[in-house]
Amino acid sequence: MLRGWDATTGQQRWMHALDSRPIYATCAISNEAGALLAIAGSDEIIHIWDPVTEEMQSGASFYARNPVRSLSCLKTEDATFLVMADEDGAVHLYDMNNHSYQTLYIRERDGAYRANPQILDRSVTAVSAFRHKEDAVLVTGGDDGSLTIDVATKNARNLFYPYRPMERNRRRRLKPRHLRRAHEGEVFALSPFHIGSNTFLATAGVDRAVRIWGLTRDRPYGSLEGHTGAVRALCPFTTDDGDLLVSTGDDRTARIWDPISGNLVQVIRLHHPALALAQAGDLLAVGLSAGLLLIQPDLAHRADRRREDALPLQYAQGSATGRRRRVTNQQRRRGSD
Fold this sequence. Notes:
Blueprint: E1 2-5, E2 12-17, E3 25-31, E4 34-40, E5 45-50, E6 55-56, E7 62-63, E8 68-75, E9 80-86, E10 91-95, E11 100-107, E12 118-120, E13 124-132, E14 135-142, E15 146-153, H1 156-160, E16 178-181, E17 187-195, E18 198-205, E19 210-214, E20 222-224, E21 231-239, E22 242-249, E23 253-257, E24 264-269, E25 274-280, E26 283-288, E27 291-295, H2 320-336
Parallel strand pairs: 11-12
Antiparallel strand pairs: 1-2, 2-27, 3-4, 4-5, 5-6, 5-7, 8-9, 9-10, 10-11, 13-14, 14-15, 15-16, 17-18, 18-19, 19-20, 21-22, 22-23, 23-24, 25-26, 26-27
């Protein structure tokens, strides 16, 4: 275990743990005591790790059948789910309450699964599951650069158990709500974030761009650019002033962005390529090709609180979003004359 300290304040700034294994995916699992981390390495096991006690929760870890490359957690009123994309491009669901395991998506060539999953013509390379108002949302990114958003109204189990009998003995199957050409090449990372009460989606991939989307928009608000290599992971970092957005990847940097202004808040230099990100309390967990790095970001110079109705990249210099809004307001005024 390696630790770094601020010589001026005496505060611990970072900790390097699990240095003997690559960390391909991680996500936070909130509980009453704080946040645990689900960690996926090369051993086909999802480990549950407590960053406070620095101990593995051996009773909660489970076998994932294939190495996992993307991992997301969704909590409902009565259950906690882990959604995983494995190295074969399939998507699986694990219910942490009753320890059940189900395959949701497979690629057409994968005939070995027997869980009646939905068959896709692409490999899923990234997943994200989250709540949006009363809906449960499952987003998948593909090796063809596409993006699919599936929504289940009111009951998350309707989404995650698509072949479960529904009312009047009907079966509900997952159908794409939106399919977009999000990136040129593989999509490696997906992350929801909030501005006020509104939810937005950040995506990233091999083309080095971080793009910001609305859940009902066919075009992105814009892009955050600066990475010099593929972007492998994204996560929101919640502060008292709202959500920041963190990105990392092959260029060995973790970049913290203000999603409203598009400004780069902080660049953290890393010693290894980064593959995964998650927020654990006030710490940023970075999954590296050699271990897990826990960082205390320095966000003292965070911008003032933003308006509840602000849009992503609204105040960015030369923002296309700002130009579109001005034209729209102009058209509205003309229409009311």
